[in-house]
Amino acid sequence: MIKNKPCPECHSTMELKKTTLHFEREGFYADVENVSAFICPKCGTKSVPGKLAVNIGNTVEGLFKSAKEIKVSTEKDLAPAFSGISFHMVQA
Fold first, then answer.
1. Tell me: the pLDDT tens digits for 57-82?
2. Residue 47's domain spans which residues?
3. CA 82, CA 14: separation in Å to the nearest integer?
């Protein structure tokens, strides 16, 4: 696997590190932690490798879709079924 690549913004050398990605949609948010991504030490640009980016995107979009459906079904009660989800892999 490639360990570094040029930054598309400032052309510095990006390094493969762990980061947290933050997503927001219609009043909901999700944080995905410990993601392997290329990060520019100069400007902070993040780049997640292709297949990983697609997998994270699909997972997060599924969560937002489910959250929105639950919100719509409970709006008449004025109380959402839940206010957030936290999902973590337990490190052995």
1. 999 998 888 877 765 555 555 555 55
2. 4-77
3. 38
